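Project outcomes to date are best conveyed with an example. Our students and postdoctoral researchers have been running inverse folding experiments weekly, and each run begins with a structure described purely in tokens. The record below, which covers 408 residues, was selected by the lab manager from last quarter's runs and is presented without edits.
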């Protein structure tokens, strides 16, 4: 005996559809998870209002030295482009922006051939990279407040600098302005006893230590600058008026042609993720093929659900039981084409049977039965005159009713 299903058909359909959608979501998350994390995750450092962010520095720059005109592409701005990478930023993304700025300066000046032939200096397209320092985590139920959990790995920070460099930690008493050709620089009020710095053959310290390690350094002779310790310009540092003035002076010193105007870049936070098979399937030009395959699979499932049902048991060649036996006899009679002869044969059989019951040994006779109970002779005639199966069946039903009335 088969057990009934514990779930209704509608419940099963809902579970199947929900499982398919969850599977599709899992596949999409595996392929686009990095991009979704960038788009919906933590805000760029320039927008964050906690102690490790630069929201105050951004507002100060926009209020005092905003970029000229409307800029739709931050990497193409003539103002200083401030990059605020995080620990998770890919070094190649930083290098791509720096190289783009250098190429833009050459192209806007007239090209490398013009610069080499005329000796014309390149136009200024300065880039300032502010390296991260602290790892933080949000405090529950306290809005945007965070707490420090440690410093960012120095090895990772070195990779964000487009030059060979070594990581240093300096005592703040040794930090000072190093380059006289940048007279506008001012000393910062260092918030901590130890300050992050970098040293390298191609890094020229503008603000740094006596041993040559740079807190603010210039990469070679380019217009690319690196601020190694962000505690000089983050939100916590901007609470000190001396640091706010020193930050504005720093921008004017590294790009006096544009009066230190600056623009914060956010493209590092929203860069595209790595390519993979899932992205290949769900992005043009293969998106149409993928949708067509999904639609074909859905239609095939619908067709299969309507075609297949519970398994059918193999039927007997000859069914068991009296009713099945009668059905078999009727079917064979029809196949043999003998149904027109059913009426007279049935009339003879019923005449003999009823005569034995009602005439008490007399010879079978329709007229005698008609005297016992009127109407039999008419039914007997109808059976014998029937030429179709329906006529014989109607007369047989009436004869059955006559038997019930007489009690035969």
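After processing, the design step wrote out the following sequence:
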């Amino acid at each position: 005996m088969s057990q009934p299903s514990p779930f209704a058909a509608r419940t099963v359909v809902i579970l199947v559809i929900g499982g398919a959608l969850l599977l599709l979501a899992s596949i999409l998350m595996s392929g686009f998870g990095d991009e979704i994390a960038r788009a919906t995750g933590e805000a760029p450092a320039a927008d964050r209002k906690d102690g490790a962010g630069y929201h105050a520095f951004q507002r100060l720059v926009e209020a005092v030295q905003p970029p000229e005109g409307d800029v739709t592409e931050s990497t193409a701005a003539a103002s200083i482009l401030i990059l605020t990478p995080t620990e998770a930023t890919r070094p190649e993304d930083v290098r791509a922006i720096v190289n783009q700025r250098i190429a833009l300066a050459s192209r806007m000046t007239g090209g490398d051939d013009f610069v080499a032939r005329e000796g014309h200096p390149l136009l200024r397209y300065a880039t300032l990279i502010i390296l991260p320092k602290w790892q933080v985590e949000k405090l529950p139920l306290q809005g945007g407040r965070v707490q420090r959990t440690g410093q960012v790995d120095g090895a990772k920070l070195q990779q964000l600098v487009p030059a060979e460099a070594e990581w240093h930690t300096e005592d703040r008493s040794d930090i000072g302005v190093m380059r006289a050709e940048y007279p506008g620089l001012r000393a910062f009020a260092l918030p901590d006893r130890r300050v992050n710095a970098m040293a390298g053959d191609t890094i020229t310290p503008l603000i740094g230590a006596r041993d040559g390690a740079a807190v603010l350094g210039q990469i070679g002779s380019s217009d690319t600058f690196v601020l190694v310790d962000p505690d000089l310009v983050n939100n916590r540092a901007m609470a000190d008026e001396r640091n706010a003035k020193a930050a504005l002076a720093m921008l004017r010193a590294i790009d006096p042609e544009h009066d230190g105007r600056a623009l914060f870049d956010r493209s590092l936070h929203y860069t595209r993720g790595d390519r993979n098979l899932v992205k290949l399937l769900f992005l043009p030009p293969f998106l149409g093929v993928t949708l067509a395959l999904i639609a074909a699979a859905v239609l095939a499932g619908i067709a299969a659900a309507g075609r297949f049902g519970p398994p059918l048991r193999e039927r007997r060649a000859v069914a068991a039981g009296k009713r099945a036996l009668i059905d078999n006899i009727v079917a064979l009679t029809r196949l043999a084409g003998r149904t027109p002869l059913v009426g007279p044969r049935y009339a003879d059989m019923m005449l003999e049977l009823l005569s034995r019951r009602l005439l008490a040994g007399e010879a079978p006779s329709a007229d005698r039965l008609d005297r016992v109970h009127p109407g039999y002779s008419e039914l007997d005639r109808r059976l014998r005159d029937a030429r179709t199966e329906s006529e014989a069946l109607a007369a047989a039903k009436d004869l059955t009713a006559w038997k019930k009335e007489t009690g035969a």
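The radius of gyration is 48 Å. Residues 9-40 form the longest helix (32 residues). The training component of this project remains on track.
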